[in-house]
Amino acid sequence: WPERVLTMQRNWIGRSYGAEVNFYIEDLAVNIPVFTTRPDTLFGATFFVLAPEHPLVNELVKGKPQEQLVTDYVDSAVAQTVVERMSTERKKTGIDTGRTITNPVNGDQLPIWVSDYVLMDYGTGAIMAVPGHDERDFEFAEQYGLEIREVVRPVDSTEVVLPYIDKS
Q1: What does pTM read for this prediction?
Q2: Do 140 and 111 touch, CB atoms closer than 8 A?
Q3: DSSP 52-106
Q4: In the prediction, which pLDDT does 84 show?
């Protein structure tokens, strides 16, 4: 990782309380860490997302049928500014890599996507997507027909409302 990214990660992670969790890609024998302030939502992860600039993206799709589509998507995504990519006014875009990663708490195989709403300079450049509890993940899951699983409810709630977004 470039030193500037490591410094940003240290500064960001050091300002938040949480955990770094490793997700594992078996056929590549690679761990990809994510930082989460909500480890209680690990059971709600239904897909995994890498930033287009993530150094493992090319390796993930090398020799896969979708290699060229993913490469074209990455080229398009990195041509955008961070401000454009983080805008809440536009639809998030992404592409499935055709690979899966293992959720360490339950063994679920999660599809690995590349999306413009995940930034390499924020955290580890990878996220466990928990659409039942995160607004951005929810919008992405709805757009691409991905599973949405609720695993945490406020103590005072008796009805299920999707998505439950923790704003604290």
Answers
A1: 0.82
A2: no
A3: TT-TTHHHHHTTSTTHHHHHHHHHHHHTS-HHHHH-TTS---EEEEEEEEE-TTT
A4: 87
